[in-house]
């Protein structure tokens, strides 16, 4: 299976379960792997024959910046739903980090896989 990926996409948003977190913006970091047919695009050298990672990134930036979820789980699930429903993707692995959220750790977050592997 071929993969198109987006690495370390940092987006500021309102996220968190505590009152103080509802008053500030924090950075979440997205790492996403999505299935794609690399061979077809390589044969034609045309963007229409592959998954446009810039289009996916722009869509997620717009969504995440406006979102105000409590849990990282909810935000990750919604991002996965957007990718699977709006782009030619059948399977994805998405990691959502909330860097610095827990003192003493570099990062915390979730990793989800959704869809069917082709
Ligand atoms: N599994 C989760 N645990 C926690 C979450 C979360 O979104 N998922 N969130 C918090 C707080 O918002 C925390 O990030 C504040 O530092 C705690 N645990």
Automatic annotation (TrEMBL):
Gene Ontology MF, one: isomerase activity
Sequence similarity: Belongs to the DHNA family.
Keyword Lyase tagged: yes
Pathway annotation from the record: Cofactor biosynthesis; tetrahydrofolate biosynthesis; 2-amino-4-hydroxy-6-hydroxymethyl-7,8-dihydropteridine diphosphate from 7,8-dihydroneopterin triphosphate: step 3/4
Domain of life (superkingdom): Bacteria
Protein name: 7,8-dihydroneopterin aldolase
EC class: lyase
Species, as recorded: Wenzhouxiangella marina
């Amino acid at each position: 299976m071929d993969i198109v990926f987006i690495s370390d996409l940092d987006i500021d948003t309102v996220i968190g379960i505590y009152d103080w977190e509802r008053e500030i913006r924090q950075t979440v970091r997205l790492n996403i792997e999505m299935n794609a047919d690399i061979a077809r695009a390589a044969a034609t050298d045309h963007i229409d024959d592959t998954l446009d990672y810039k289009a996916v990134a722009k869509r997620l930036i717009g969504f995440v910046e406006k979102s105000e979820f409590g849990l990282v789980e909810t935000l990750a699930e919604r991002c996965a739903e957007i990718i699977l429903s709006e782009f030619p993707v059948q399977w994805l692995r998405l990691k959502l980090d909330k860097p610095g959220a827990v003192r003493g750790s570099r990062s915390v977050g979730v990793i989800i896989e959704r869809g069917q592997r082709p």
